[in-house]
Design a protein that fits this description.
With 419 residues, the protein is mainly beta. It has four helices and 36 strands. 7% of the residues lie in helices and 40% in strands. It has a 22-stranded mixed β-sheet that branches. A twelve-stranded parallel β-sheet has the order 3-5-8-11-14-17-20-22-24-26-29-32, with no helix packed on it. It has a two-stranded antiparallel ribbon with strand order 35-36. A hairpin with a 2-residue loop joins strand 33 and strand 34.
């Protein structure tokens, strides 16, 4: 009975397969570091991987010019895992510049990939209709010579996807395209603790994170900076949370909300020093909660605002946000918040927000259709916005390198504690 029990435990643990680009051979059995396989082609051709198996690439090695494409699926609780072994730098899976295929192609389910560096590819990683995929602790470096995202997600109902602790950089191309992570469609997606920067060449279409036709997503604690277009884009999104992200120095919006947005929360984000609008609401139908964001000195092109809400938006609740526009830093005649018309004020709920123009006329920190209004006149709009709001310097720890509030800040304790 004990031998049977130990046999079951070994089965549950799965098998290990090793790949060593320098010391391995595809004539080996791959079952130990001493008998490792050598190539990705051998991995791709092996159709007998079982749920719970681990395929391990030796650290410090580079595997060139063959994409990795698993041909077997894991199952719930027992994914097939691609990982690293040994010591040193991450193993690298690399394609030559100009390659028009992927470094990693996933159309099987219950796959985990971690601790590998991917270089090049169009895109670097592609997920086509797969589900229950976990990708974590990777670096992805794009190919500057061809069109491609860092990670592309599409196909029929890709769902239950998790991306954690990724560094994605330089996904560029000469003619447009090149987001860090792009999904259309997808559901139950988690993107967290990633660093996505310097992606794209198009100022209108190349974003850090781009989620379209997605639902049940959590996007949290990511750094999205110096991307050619937006830091984060939401389009036709529902039942999702975007929180604790820092979006800065992007070539267009910090966070852009477009098309139909239903039951989406955008909260506790830092949005600053983006070229265009910091937080843009440009939607035809919305149930959206904009809470506790710090939005500072956006519109560095001097023609855009910190927060902009266009004509037709309704159903948003906008509370506890700090919007600062320092005209000594951003030279221009723009505002912390600018709404398309009076109907926008009437059809959305605003309260407990702090808007302030520093080194300007602080009491005219609100704008309707590009015309300044005082806080008193803002409150006279239909809907009585921001009865508990203020025009005050929030007193950051250091302007504008540390956006924590000092203990003397008038914003401390002034928000709606129920959100």
């Amino acid at each position: 009975m004990l031998s049977l029990l130990f046999g079951i435990q070994r089965l549950r643990a799965g098998r290990k397969f090793y790949i060593d680009a320098t010391g391995g051979s595809d004539l080996n059995d791959g079952r130990s570091p001493a008998t490792a396989w050598q190539t990705i082609s051998k991995v791709n051709a092996f159709s007998s991987f079982l749920p719970g198996d681990r395929i391990l690439f030796k650290r410090g090695e580079t595997y060139n010019n063959t994409r990795l494409r698993p041909v077997s699926s894991g199952k719930a609780g027992r994914p097939i895992t691609f990982d690293a072994y040994g010591s040193g730098a991450l193993p690298i899976i690399s394609l030559n510049a100009g390659s028009t295929t992927e470094c990693l192609y996933l159309d099987k389910n219950y796959i985990t990939v971690r601790n590998i560096a991917f270089v090049g590819g169009v895109p670097s990683i592609e997920i086509n209709g797969a589900n229950n995929i976990t990708i974590e602790d990777l670096t992805i470096t794009g190919d500057a010579t061809v069109r491609g995202n860092g990670i592309s997600i599409y196909g029929t109902d890709p769902h239950t996807l998790a991306f954690r602790r990724l560094t994605i950089a330089g996904c560029k191309c000469p003619v447009g395209g090149g987001a860090g992570i792009a999904a259309n469609p997808a559901s139950n997606v988690t993107i967290e603790d990633c660093v996505i920067h310097d992606c794209g060449t198009s100022p209108t279409s190349d974003h850090g994170i781009y989620l379209k036709n997605t639902t049940d997503c959590f996007v949290r604690r990511n750094l999205c900076y110096s991307n050619t277009s937006d830091g984060i884009v939401l389009s036709f999104v529902s039942n999702s949370v975007y929180e604790q992200n820092a979006c800065y120095l992007n070539g267009n919006y910090g966070i852009g909300c477009h098309d139909t947005i239903t039951n989406v929360t955008v909260r506790n984000n830092l949005i600053y020093s983006n070229v265009s609008v910091g937080l843009m609401l440009d939607v035809v139908a919305v149930t959206e909660y904009i809470y506790n964001n710090t939005i500072v000195n956006n519109g560095t092109d001097t023609t855009h605002d910190n927060m902009q809400i266009v004509i037709g938006v309704s159903g948003a609740i906008i509370k506890n946000n700090i919007c600062v526009y320092d005209r000594a830093v951003v030279v221009g005649n723009r505002w912390p918040i600018n709404v398309g018309n009076a109907a926008v004020v009437a059809n959305n709920e605003f309260d407990n927000n702090c808007y302030i123009i520093l080194n300007g006329v602080g009491n005219t920190s609100q704008a309707v259709n590009g015309s300044s209004v005082t806080l008193a006149n803002w409150r006279l709009q239909t809907g009585t916005p921001d009865l508990n709001g203020m025009n005050a310097d929030p007193v950051f720890t250091t302007n504008y390198t540390d956006l924590h509030l000092q203990v003397t800040s008038p914003c401390i304790g002034a928000g709606d504690s129920t959100v």
